[in-house]
């Protein structure tokens, strides 16, 4: 029986998920709330506290030794603060201190959601066995993390690999981060749906206008839906190729809700990557869907503080 558990939080623009995770990576208890992303910072924090409160109500909480947080970014791991682009009420929000208070003083480690996903994928997912990899979360936003030389490379503040805010369209739309033409502004789920709607795509009778509905329409051959995903794939390919050219990654792993579109996304992505990754040392770059699924953020957050193989794999992310 595993005695020591880690409480993990996965905080994004859509949901706040929590879990109790053992050393083998098994999730024993779950809790989740919608993210009140357009509300003030204290309202968002109350949702976090509600998730933690549900976890605290489990009899297994007595075995929890630490809390790991994977949050939408930017984050500042050194200061323990978060400023998610998609949660405007949190700017320099002292999340680590607040979570420490809610949990009675437990040790808390913070990483960006892209780094968390990377920790999970490098430990037991599609990036396993690769010494140099880029792992991406393509969902409400677009985040990422790097493995270089066999180790996670989060950077001084925990944001290295944040590919979503590489500009791939110099005269493109203004991004909430303040720049123009960011990968996220083109390839995130809401922006895929926005572009499709602007270009004339219309939802079905159920009224679903999400990226998942656009993906279903694209799979059925709707040309506007197909074009929106092709544009997203082009933006992702440009960002991936730029990253590969800089640091010679050998694989790009893509997870998050948009990756659930399958070949609707991956087929045009591979074609576009062939066009952008032209230099000899990046031509053989592999692209693969993530394997850890919707639990990647939770597993990666736990990896930042957990002993054993996960903790060793994510030691740099926590540091």
Automatic annotation (TrEMBL):
Signal peptide bounds: none
A Pfam entry, by short name: ROK
Family stated for the protein in its record: Belongs to the ROK (NagC/XylR) family.
Protein name, as recorded: ROK family protein
Native source species: Streptomyces tirandamycinicus
């Amino acid at each position: 029986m595993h005695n020591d558990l880690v409480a993990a939080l996965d905080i994004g623009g859509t949901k706040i998920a929590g879990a109790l995770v053992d050393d083998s990576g098994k999730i024993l208890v779950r809790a989740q709330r919608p993210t009140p992303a357009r509300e003030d910072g204290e309202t968002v924090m109350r949702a976090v506290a509600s998730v933690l409160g549900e976890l605290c109500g489990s009899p297994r909480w007595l075995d929890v030794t630490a809390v790991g947080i994977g949050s939408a970014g930017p984050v500042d791991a050194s200061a323990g603060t978060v400023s998610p682009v998609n949660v405007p009420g949190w700017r320099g929000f002292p999340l680590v201190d607040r979570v420490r208070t809610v949990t009675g003083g437990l040790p808390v480690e913070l990483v960006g959601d892209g780094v968390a996903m990377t920790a999970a994928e490098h430990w037991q997912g599609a990036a396993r066995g690769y010494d140099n990899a880029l792992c991406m979360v393509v969902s409400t936003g677009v985040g990422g993390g790097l493995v270089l030389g066999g180790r996670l490379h989060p950077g001084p503040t925990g944001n290295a690999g944040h590919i979503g805010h590489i500009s791939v369209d110099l005269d493109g739309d203004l991004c909430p981060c303040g720049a123009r033409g960011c990968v996220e502004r083109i390839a995130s789920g809401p922006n895929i749906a926005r572009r499709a709607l602007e270009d004339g795509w219309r939802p079905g009778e159920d009224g679903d206008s999400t990226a998942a509905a656009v993906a279903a329409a694209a799979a059925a051959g709707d040309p506007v839906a197909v074009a929106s995903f092709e544009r997203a794939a082009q933006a992702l390919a440009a960002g991936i190729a730029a990253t590969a050219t800089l640091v010679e990654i050998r694989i790009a792993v893509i997870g998050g809700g948009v990756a659930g579109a399958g070949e609707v996304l991956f087929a045009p992505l591979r074609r576009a990557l062939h066009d952008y990754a032209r230099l000899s040392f990046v031509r053989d770059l592999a692209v693969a869907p993530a394997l850890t699924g919707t639990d990647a953020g939770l597993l990666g957050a736990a990896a930042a503080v957990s002993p054993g193989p996960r903790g060793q794999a994510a030691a740099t992310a926590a540091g």
